[in-house]
Write a structure and sequence with these properties.
- The complex is a heterodimer.
- Chain A is mostly helical.
- Chain A contains 14 helices and two strands.
- Chain A has a two-stranded antiparallel ribbon.
- In chain A, β1 and β2 form a beta hairpin.
- In chain B, 28% of the residues lie in helices and 32% in strands.
- Chain B has eleven helices and 18 strands.
- Chain B has helices at residues 43-51, 93-97, 99-103, 108-121, 137-149, 167-184, 195-201, 219-224, 229-234, 243-250, 316-320; strands at 5-14, 17-27, 32-36, 58-63, 66-67, 78-81, 155-159, 187-192, 204-209, 212-217, 240-241, 256-258, 264-267, 276-288, 292-299, 304-310, 326-332, 336-338.
- In chain B, the strands form four sheets. Chain B has a six-stranded mixed β-sheet with strand order 6-7-8-3-9-10, sandwiched between helices.
- Chain B is elongated, with a radius of gyration of 24 Å.
- Chain B starts with a strand and ends with a strand.
- The relative contact order of chain B is 0.12.
- The chains are: A mainly alpha, B alpha+beta.
- The A-B interface holds A 207, 209-210, 212-220, 223, 227-228, 231-232, 307-308 and B 51-53, 72-74, 78-80, 82-84, 86-90, 99-100, 103-104, 147-148, 151.
Chain lengths: 309, 341
């Protein structure tokens, strides 16, 4: 007869859980469910509840009664302007990020050697290691009237180009550091990694043999890109655009550092919940980006963005 | 007759590695031609140079007399069946098959008609609406074949297309591929490392080793008259006798090969008939394989010979009892193949 083997505690726990897979699963999922369910969804729910109350203009007190009048306030001209301005910027930033990120991600995944791949990857994520605020203020200096960009335009006798750009209505301003153009440049810079990485991940999953098969069947590089590469990388583009779009929609630092007096959604939320104490309106405003994102995902789905997944 | 494909002194180097090292080869029109060799022998690189995915470092490749060495894949009249099938996952089976026609702007009605034709040819009717992910391995294989053949290429390239299938399906597809090739009547160039597959399907084959071609010939020539020690060992079971043992048995120090099924296994001391050669030894290993038994015999003169015997009357008990026994091996002089270096 065999001697009874001494079983360690961890071995016994393992054996106990091996026979009870459901319990094991429950233990694994409990922390994330608590985190997402209670902390995240819970606070979101409180927010939504706030948005159906309203601020009494006369007393300055929040009245805790069900009403849709706060949502109605979103449709005043000034709020519609804020929403339109923010969504417009988010769209422009997203499009520019796609245009910059795709070639980079394509080169990194399809052509770069192991070494240069690592180097490119590092250079994409490296900016994320430093503080976002520091980078935004660094850009403020770069874009300033006395900054390197103005200097470059002056040295090349192209100041008139810059001045012409800044004179454009709607997107111009006294200098790049106080204009929607400057804001756009900084947004594209700070969110670019969030576009590159998902596209890269999507392209990694496209086997080289698919591109060879397309060429073998008579398609040149451009046709192959249109019919094979782009459709297969599209979920990555959508994932990246969810990041760049929603990050721009919710940001209040870049507009307050580089913007003029025209508010973005983030700034409006900040001022309503802080200075004016209008928590219901602040809450209602935060539902706008959520609604826009939901709409965006529905359209993306209709366009077949997730079929290749 | 003009060859369908000609390699003229073609080499392909990857840095220091000579993947393909100065090969010259003609593949005839309508042939089922196999490039056979172990992995890393240069057979796949050679195929990829015909397709246009690789360009030769030296030498030229001709397709029906035209130099295509510098043409991109989409300008070559060849199509490829890939090892991993390379079906487009976001397209249906019908869209996959008609891809080449769509690129060449063939009208939709004709595309549909030819897709149906192809689905019938590869015996997958009514599956046009499925996605590749909904198909079995064998079905994907057929779709890949249909997608290549629909373009009616004069030459079809197949890169280990049956490698991922199980044995039964593979054997069935071998026969089917051969039938399809005869039906469409075009040149098939087939890459495999499986010598049995190569012998089953090919009209002719080239055996690759270290980037060079060791021998070109029909399956029977390659099997019965291997030109080099490598071919003798790679195609079929290696049974090579050389040096003093060769001298003592055959009277010449030149190495020779003899196929295991040509050797007669007899009891020690059996008289040797005229025209036969013999060698004595001891049975070292017996492997019972159902249909036949494989013996490994250690020769007294040095070296080993593998012998296979069909289990006509013997049972597993009989054959296993042979282990360790002294035996005499005999074979016909004409079945002995001298091997140069």
């Amino acid at each position: 007869m065999q001697a009874v083997k001494r079983v360690s505690l961890s071995q016994r726990i393992s054996n106990f859980l091996f026979l009870r897979p459901r319990l094991f699963l429950a233990l694994l999922l409990l922390p994330p469910i608590l985190w997402l369910g209670v902390v995240y969804l819970g606070s979101m729910l409180t927010l939504l509840i706030q948005s159906i109350f309203y601020l009494d203009d006369f007393t300055g007190q929040v009245v805790r009664e069900f009403t849709l009048r706060t949502y109605g306030e979103l449709f005043t001209q000034s709020n519609l302007d804020i929403i339109g301005r923010t969504a417009g910027m988010a769209t422009a930033v997203t499009l520019a990020a796609v245009l910059l990120a795709f070639p980079l991600a394509y080169y990194t995944t399809m052509h770069a050697t192991r070494r240069s791949k690592a180097l490119l990857y590092l250079s994409v994520v490296l900016p994320l290691w430093s503080s976002y605020l520091v980078r935004v203020y660094a850009w403020k200096l770069i874009l300033a009237k006395e900054g390197i960009i103005s200097w470059f335009f002056t040295q090349t006798s192209l100041s008139w180009v810059l001045e012409g750009l800044l004179r454009l209505p709607g997107i111009g301003g006294p200098s790049l550091s106080i204009s929607p153009i400057g804001m756009f440049l900084v947004f594209v810079y700070v969110w670019l990694p969030y576009m590159v990485l998902p596209i890269q991940a999507a392209l990694e999953r496209v086997p080289a043999s698919l591109l060879e098969a397309s060429e073998d069947l008579g398609a040149n590089a451009l046709v192959t890109f249109r019919h094979i590469t782009l459709p297969l990388a599209f979920p990555g583009v959508v994932a990246g655009s969810i990041f760049t779009f929603s990050l721009t929609l919710g940001d209040f630092i870049v507009p307050s550092v580089l913007g003029n007096s025209s508010f973005f959604i983030g700034q409006a939320v900040l001022s309503h919940q802080g200075t004016s104490g209008n928590i219901p309106l602040a809450a209602a405003l935060t539902t706008v980006p959520m609604a826009i994102m939901a709409l965006y995902l529905i359209i993306a789905r209709k366009l077949g963005a997730f079929e290749a997944l | 007759m003009q060859p369908a494909i000609s390699f003229v002194n073609v080499s392909r180097h990857f840095g220091e590695v000579r993947a393909v090292d100065d090969i010259t080869l003609d593949i005839m029109d309508g042939e089922f031609f196999t490039l056979l060799g172990p992995s890393g022998s240069g057979k796949t690189t050679s195929l990829r140079m015909v397709a246009g995915f690789e360009r030769p470092s030296k030498g030229e490749i001709y397709l029906h007399g035209a130099n295509v060495s510098q043409l991109p894949p989409y300008e070559r009249a060849v199509n490829t069946v890939f090892q991993d099938y390379a079906l487009f996952p976001h397209m249906s089976v019908a869209e996959n098959i008609s891809y080449g026609l769509m690129i060449r702007k063939v009208p939709k009605a004709e595309r549909m008609r030819r897709v149906e034709e192809m689905l019938a040819l590869v015996r997958l009717p009514n599956l046009g609406g499925r996605k590749p992910s909904q198909l079995s391995g064998g079905q994907r294989q057929r779709v890949a074949l249909a997608r290549a053949l629909i373009n009616r290429p004069p030459v079809l390239l197949l890169d280990e297309p049956l490698g991922a299938l199980d044995l039964k399906l593979r054997q069935q597809m071998q026969i089917e591929l051969k039938i399809i090739q005869q039906q469409v009547g075009i040149t098939f160039v087939y890459v495999t490392h499986d010598q049995e597959e190569a012998l089953t399907m090919s009209d002719r084959l080239a055996v690759f080793n270290n980037g060079k071609i060791e021998q070109v010939g029909s399956p029977s020539e390659i099997y019965e008259r291997p030109g080099t020690a490598f071919v003798a060992g790679f195609v079929g079971i290696s049974n090579l006798i050389s040096g003093s043992a060769a001298e003592a048995i055959a009277g010449s120090s030149e190495s020779f090969a003899v196929r295991p099924e040509k050797i007669h296994l007899a009891e020690a001391g059996t008289p040797v008939p005229d025209g036969r050669l013999s060698a004595d030894g001891r049975v070292r290993q017996v492997i019972y394989l159902g249909m036949y038994t494989r013996y490994t015999v250690e020769l007294d003169l040095g070296g080993e010979l593998t012998v296979v015997h069909q289990n006509l009357e013997t049972t597993s008990m009989d054959v296993l009892a042979a282990r360790g026994k002294r035996v005499r091996l005999m074979w016909n002089r004409t079945h002995m193949q001298p091997i140069g270096d």
